[in-house]
Amino acid sequence: xxxxxxxxxxxxxxxxxxxxxxxxxxxxxxxxxxxxxxxxxxxxxxxxxxxxxxxxxxxxxxxxxxxxxxxxxxxxxxxxxxxxxxxxxxxxxxxxxxxxxxxxxxxxxxxxxxxxxxxxxxxxxxxxxxxxxxxxxxxxxxxxxxxxxxxxxxxxxxxxxxxxxxxxxxxxxxx
Length: 175
Ligand SMILES: [Zn+2]
Ligand SMILES: [Zn+2]
Hints:
- By secondary structure, the protein is mainly α.
- The chain contains 9 helices and no strands.
- It has one domain (2-174).
- It has helices at residues 2-10, 21-46, 52-55, 74-81, 85-90, 95-112, 131-141, 152-156, 167-174.
């Protein structure tokens, strides 16, 4: 919150004061897509040798719960929390669109860490609500599925895990 406020104070960013419903819809859609790209890039960085140390607190949850959402290092919080800075520099957003980011982020995070398979049918793995299954696999396997709620970045960069990727780990705990 402090850094975006600083951008406004410095005059480097401005707010759109009278945004139409169409503009709000387009802005929020663009921010949802940008949030996914931004998360993927930062998450991949957090899995590098140099930054892994700051991401391991989050990976203490091998089986996730919505509380895992809140378990991360301050450095990770800074990296992921700066998501609206770059968009604010290139476009004058409505305050409502910017305020929507933490709202959809917390909703997506709760879905992603719910450890609940919304669509147990493996053939529907492309659907966005299966972010829960994809992120569960990320926590179970540690490598792969670095995306947040949508599968397109992992598909694009060839880091998607197959739906049965964690079967071995699960069996080890069941037997
Ligand atoms: Zn991770
Ligand atoms: Zn997670």
